[in-house]
Amino acid sequence: MPVQDVGKYMAQHGSLPASKGGHTSRPRTSVGHRYLDVLQSKARGVGAGHDSDRSSTASSSSLRDRDEELDLLVLGITSGTMMDDIDIALCRFTQQFPDAPLFLEIVQYDSIVMPSKIRNEVLDMLREDAAPPSMLSQMDAELGHTFANAAHIFTARHNIAIDSIDLIGSGGQLVSLTARPPKGHHRANMCLGEGAIICAKTGITTVSDFRTAEQAIGRQGAPLFTYMVGLLLHHPTRMQICITIGGITTVCFIPPDNHGGIDAMYDWDTGPGTVLLDAAFRFYGLDPEEYRDGSLEDGKVCFDVLHDVLKLNEYFKARPPKTTAREIFGDAMAYEIIHACEARGCSPADVVATLTRLTTASCTQQLLVFGPGRSVIDNADIVIDGRGMYNRQFMAQLQAEFPGASFGSFEKSGVPSNAKKSVGFAMQAMEAVLGRARPVAANADVRRPNTITGKLAPGVRWREVIERSVAFGGSRSGWEGLPEVRELIVKRNQVMVSR
User: Fold this and answer.
1) For the whole prediction, is pTM greater than 0.90?
2) CB 123, CB 247: distance < 8 Å
3) How far is residue 125 from each of residues 23, 140, 269, 377, measured CA to CA in Å?
4) Percentage of the chain surpassing pLDDT 90?
5) What whole-number distance in Å separates Cα of residue 453 and Cα of residue 455?
6) How far is CA 460 from the centre of its chain?
7) Strands 205-208, 455-457: pairing kind
8) Over the stretch 383-414, which tens digit does the pLDDT of each residue have?
9) Cα(192)–Cα(455) distance, rounded to whole angstroms?
């Protein structure tokens, strides 16, 4: 029977004491520090285990035999704005030589439910907006342990030898993002889930803090997946528009190849996705999972409130590039809208209808104001992904706004929608150890390539992974030596996923 909750899993296996009253306390994993276990075994002259010995020997042998081809097995792991799941994807990246197409094989992907206690603690912390440093550091460590536990659950569930994994790319849990700071302040973010802890508890070299790396060179720290989306969706003659409706809604335009293609792609966050809806469900004591598909359909939109929000919110007026998070579209804003609707006699169903329409109306407004124009959009392929794609109201309203467009799912790219972000972080981790820059959106604040793609915590096989990465491309060094990926090909296979 698949395990659905990290905390529950650890309690059932005797490593997590149950608190009084039968409630589960914070996850304390029995999985030891894999990194230290292996080093101690080696110090005693004993191998870390047959799997580790085999993987190390096989890797060294394959390095000699494969004539410097790239072959890395990378685990991508992340939790989105909604903090409901930990999404994990195991990806194999292969490339014959630096100028050749990059091949992606999704070996397996899955979602592990975020322990509700941790989710509630983070949400409470964000609502209060006054967390002391001790709380922040504790939650950073807590989520690091949680992500490491999830990696062990994932590999055990799918019979994957954890020692066979070369890298982990962790997107962490974003809780704060300052993309456009006031004068005298810096761009900054806080992403919980310490990569060094993930590395220590899995023994796998871990790359994290991708947003900090982007902000360090002058970009905003999000959106992060334009390069992958562009490589997967670009078309010879048709404009591709990818609308990702997660907690926040992101739009990415990829012009046809004969009009610039991936070199001309651009993106930004349009505003709320499901984040305000989720806050409303919690406010009324409703289960978000039960109604997230848009089944609460009998409400009426309060257009007075909707128009006020669209007209007065400063984020909607700002020109791209721009990105946002819970600082703007969080519980505080949701409660303001709820109270404004209730003051006009709205029912809970009316509030949900109004917040649903706010997501699609703000997205439509942004596309028309800052996009290529209605005629271009109406003749484009619009690809929808993110958990919002399962909301019938979102889909119906967007299709009504752009009736001439051809709507489809991100699944057509070969990457499952639910795996997109974890695959993206796996790809960024791979690029980090190669020291290879990624294509940059045309509307980015800074267009120069960036090889500072994340922070690395060296694992047990760090030297081997680096040796193999450096060998790829021979004497070439830096982003000038390793050209950006220009073609990404997904090896399609029958990947099974537990739900």
Assistant:
1) no
2) no
3) 21, 12, 24, 40
4) 59
5) 7
6) 26
7) antiparallel
8) 999 988 989 999 999 999 999 999 999 999 99
9) 14
Distances (CA, A) of 162 to 75, 104, 197: 10, 19, 16
Indicate the DSSP class of residue 483: P
Q: Cα Rg for the chain, rounded, in angstroms?
A: 23
Angle between helices 348-370 and 331-343 (to 10 degrees): 120
pLDDT greater than 90 at residue 143: yes
To which residue do tokens 């006020």 refer? Answer: 308
Least Cα distance to 269 among 171, 403, 177 occurs for: 177
pLDDT at 475: 62
Indicate if the pLDDT at residue 3 is higher than 60: no
Burial of 183 (0-12, 13-18, 19+ CB in 10 A): exposed
Q: Helices 50-65 and 462-471: crossing angle, nearest 10°?
A: 20
Q: In 238-330, where does DSSP find H-type helix?
A: 275-283, 288-291, 303-312, 314-317
Neighbours of 172 (CB within 10 A): 25
d(CA 56, CA 208): 24
Contact 10, 28 (CB under 8 A): yes
What integer pLDDT is reported at residue 16 of this predicted model?
35
CB 187 within 8 A of CB 199: no
Strands 406-409 and 188-192, sheet pairing: unpaired
Pull the structure tokens for residue 257: 């190849």
Q: Do 381 and 239 touch, CB atoms closer than 8 A?
A: yes
Strands 188-192 and 167-178: antiparallel
